[in-house]
Design a protein that fits this description.
With 127 residues, the chain is mainly α. The chain contains five helices and no strands. The chain has one domain. Helix 1 runs parallel beside helix 3 and helix 2 runs parallel beside helix 5. The longest helix is centred in the last third of the chain and has 33 residues.
Amino acid sequence: MKIILIGIGGAIGAVARYIVCGLDYKFSNGIFPLGTLVVNLSGSLIIGFLWGLFEQVVISSHLRMFIFMGILGGYTTFSTFALENFNLFRDGEKNIAFFNIILSNLGGIIFVFIGYALSRIFINFMK
């Protein structure tokens, strides 16, 4: 049952990632890997928010796996991030690659903190 839940969640996350990344190529012509950045930062925000929320709201371990390992695991794109930076370096776009690496990593950590803080605000608001 766990594997099925993770697989279904992964499919949902992968489709969501495809939609977000498709918007990037539509609007930026692939000059900067904006879609991957948006996916990774929004995934960081969501995981931070849900982690904080689930510290207060009890959910089943199956639902937790479905969300964290399935949906968010399928949605975030570290391997794509690595490949895009490899290609930027290979193509001589070192400044864009470094900017993307710094922005994605620092931004991801910051967005986890923001998501967690938002969950605290949400929980206090709901009381």
